[in-house]
Amino acid sequence: MIQTNFPTQKKCWKWSVLPAKNIAMRKLLRWVPRSLGSVAVQSWEIAHGETSITRPAYFLPNQLERVTGWAFASVHPQREMEGCIEVVHAPTRAFLLKNAWLIDGVLYKDDACSYLQPRARRWLPQLHVENEIDRGAVYCTSAGNKYFGQWLMDDCVTYPLAAMEGIPISTDQPVNPHTLDYEDWLDMKPERVHTAFFKEAVIFEDYGQNRHKHARFRSMSEKLLSHVKVEPHPGVFILRRSTGERRLLINEMELAEHLRDKRGFRILDPEITDVQTIVATCAGAQTVVGVEGSGLMHGILVLSPGGAVLTLQPPNRFVCLYKHLTDRDHQNFGFVVGIAEENGFRVIADEVERTLDLFHACQTQ
User: Fold this and answer.
1) 358, 333 in Cβ contact below 8 A?
2) Domain that holds residue 155
3) 174 and 255 part of one domain
4) How many domains are there within the chain?
5) How high is the mean pLDDT in each 10-residue block of the chain (365 residues)?
C-alpha cells in the first residue's frame, strides 16, 4: 500500500447534508453513528497485535491509599500499579474510505463519522467544502488535538504511516510554537485542513502499544536527539505551574530546587523555553520528574531505555497513561501521590527522594 508522489489538494465547491443529518439524528433519535472502519472498502494490518506482562511500578507503602479519584480509567489504579498483568496490545490497522468528507473537525462517510475535534458551529453546521483531495491519510486524533502530550505520543507516531499512504491530513485547529518546531525536527509536513472532500481517505487504528509502535517512537527520539549534544545526567524536573487542566502542585518550585541542589537535577519550564532548549535539557536524563500531564512528554520522548519516569500525582486525579509507554519502551515508572490542600496539592520532598532511591536500588541489583 506504499505510494509516492501524491497529488496535492485542489479548490472546489461541494455540498454535503451529512453534518445536518448527523446532528438531527443525534438530537432527535439519540442515534449513535457507526465507526468509520465499518464503512471502509478495504482494510489491512500494518503490525501484528501481541501480548506482554506489565512491570510493577515503584512506589512507597500507603501511597495508593491516598488516591480518591482517577482519570482515563474505569477502576482504581492499584492493580495496574502492582503490575504483572498480561496485556493484549491491539494490532495497527489501516482503513480505506471512498468519498469521505472532513467538515468542521468531523470526518464523515455515509452514516459513520469520527469527531477529531469539537465542531465550531454547534447548531447551524457548515455544509460545504472548499477543497478536494484525491487521496489523504488522516493521522490526527481527538485526544491528540486536545492534549499536547497525546499529540506527541500518538499522532506524531502515526504520521509516518500517513505519509506513506497519502497526503498527511490534520485538522486546522490553532497550534502553538512547540508544535511547529517539533514538526520541523521530525520532518512532518502535514496539510492542515478545515474542509475537504476525499476521493480516498486512509484512516488508522494505532492505539496498541505493539513493537511496531515502539520502533516508530524510538525513531522519533533519535531524530530529536540528533539535533543536540547528549550527555548523561541525573534527571530533569519539568514544571507544570498552572498550565492545562488545573492540578496545582503548591510546592512545585521548592521540590524542583531541592532535587537540583541534592541530586543534580536540571529544571525545565517548557512554557518559556523553545524546543531546541527543551530537547537539550532533557537529553541524557536518567529520570524525568514532574506533575502528571502533557509537559512530561518532552522528557519521556527522549528518555533512553532503562530510564525512569516519576509522576507527582494529585490524589483526586491519578493517571496511568505514561506507565503504558514505560512498559512498552523498557523503562521504569514510579509515582508519589500528593496531599490535598485547598488550592491544589502538596508533595513531600522526602517521599520523592525515597522513591528515587527505589529506582536506584533496582538499577544496582
Assistant:
1) no
2) 10-39+92-207
3) no
4) 2
5) 56 76 75 91 98 97 96 94 97 98 93 88 76 96 94 98 97 90 97 94 98 98 97 97 81 98 98 96 98 96 97 97 97 98 95 95 62
Both 197 and 242 in one domain: the answer is no
The verdict on 199 and 341 lying in the same domain is no
